[in-house]
Description:
Helix content: 25-40%
Number of helices: 13
Strand order of the largest sheet: 4-3-5-6-7-8-9-14-13
Strand content: 15-25%
CATH superfamily of the largest domain: ANL, N-terminal domain
Shape: globular
Distance between the termini: 51 Å
Number of strands: 21
CATH architecture of the largest domain: 3-Layer(aba) Sandwich
CATH class of the largest domain: Alpha Beta
Amino acid sequence: MIELKQYKNIAFCRPAEIRRVQEKLFKAHVAYCLNKSPYYRGLRSRFKAAKASGLEALLDLPFTQKCDLEKHNDRFLAVKPDRIVDIVLSSGTTGQPTRMMYTEDDLIRLAYNEERSFAACGMIPRDRVLLTCTIDRCFVAGLAYFLGVRALGAAAIRNGLAGLESHAQIISQIKPTALVGVPSFLRKLGTYLRRHGPVSALTGVKRLICIGEPLRDRDMAPLKVSRDIEAVWGAKAFSTYASTECVSTFCECIKQAGGHLNPDLAIVEIVDDKGHALGPGETGEVVITPLGIRGMPFIRFKTGDESFIIDGPCACGRKTLRLGPIVGRKKQMLKVKGTTLYPQAVYAALDEIAGVGEYYVEAYSGDALSDELTVFLSVKGAGVNAGVIQEKLQSRLRVRPKVVIQDEETVRAKVYDPGSRKPIRFFDRRDQICRAAAK
């Protein structure tokens, strides 16, 4: 088990010291994987160099992908089954969830990870933190935030996936000083309180810890949802990123300038489609090696998320690498008449168009290896029609998707699936069509 508190302030050290610590921890992590994990023992010959030379050999090591985890789920378990204390499910590439199994040490590490992240954005022990995310149903996120709040010494308010009225009542009675939730939901909750009261309940909230959706664009400028929630709550919004498999969080600090890496808990890389390393500012797939995991450790896990590294010291004083906003999922990348974009770019454009209400996007396979997009949305007020929206989207995205206007209830029913933790705005029909054609 990593002596966690030993490296609590490592993020403020010089880059050379940060690398020295990572070198030491990475060698120990590789040795543990080769000794304890049946999966990595089977790849021992490919990891000998890493065990000896450490980070210098990182780029020559094989990646671990979700398909590997699906195919060899039990072989990734590095401890005896009786040491497992918590089991969660992670979404898989085939639609079937895969098991992630944590030891007691892993949960302690998880709590420490979230404690560091919350502290970075200014949370303190006397805070009261309302969690608007589920802690059950085999999800890890809600559990992670709960453990982190408790590790920090703050008070956790576990209202979970409740309705607006329930959260409004809790906020009025208990008066939280921080909220954790999906940005679009926090916007809706804040708007509800503005309309139905008590408005005074908003004034005590100082921090919004946002999960599941980005707050900033590729240039780090705040998206509309970020501007909206900061305005409606009168509080600062901080973006976080994590994955179930890597049990490592990248959270913004008080300067809101990218998600900080906890260097004693993970190593992050950005790679292109061929697996080659990319430099700071270059967009590619996020690859994480979580350090110190005991139950199911990984080496070079490909998350499927696309982002970029922000280099250089942060104004907060930390000298660690930072992760930019997630610009899309690799498997969701679209190619429309020669233009490459992600659904997130469509969302950002729609959020800036006055009169657009709820929306979702469907992608289909078109002719000449080009994808086709259809945007389904509701509108508010007169003067907003499909043609106007198409023109604005073409101006912003350089593509002209089909636009279908529906009533808001119909769109909302599609976006807010009761079985999902967050809004679903992208429906990829391309694979369905390919499978049908193959039959």
